[in-house]
Design brief:
Blueprint (H helix, E strand, L loop, with lengths): L2 E4 L5 E6 L5 E6 L2 H17 L12 H11 L5 H7 L22
Length: about 100
């Protein structure tokens, strides 16, 4: 379970321990916001839906590269076929892709 403390600068710090035991914290202007955030983190941990914030900051390309390196069961030909795909934008996701939504 986490805790909430008022900082000298007037902000509220919500702290919790992740499943690995590492302390994590986030600062808020209002105590209510800190309480709500902390409750959502604790609920996610109990449901098994918690995601490490550091892992959520990587791109899909970086994640795909890590994943591919971890696939020790793949044969060399399969790995070679997958390598050129890394770094390429998925269809419709590149810089020149048309935007969806209101076209007015």
């Amino acid at each position: 379970m986490g805790n909430i403390q008022r900082r000298p600068n007037g902000q509220w710090r919500a702290r919790y321990r992740d499943p690995a035991g590492r302390e994590r914290a986030r600062h808020f202007r209002r105590r209510l916001d800190a309480e709500r955030w902390l409750a959502s983190v604790e609920n996610a941990k109990h449901r098994g839906e918690w995601i490490d914030p550091a892992l959520s900051r990587i791109t899909v390309g970086e994640w795909a590269e890590r994943w591919l390196k971890a696939q020790v069961q793949l044969k060399p030909l399969t790995l070679a076929a997958q390598a050129p795909r890394q770094g390429a934008d998925p269809p419709g996701m590149g810089k020149g892709a048309p935007r969806r939504g209101n076209s007015r």
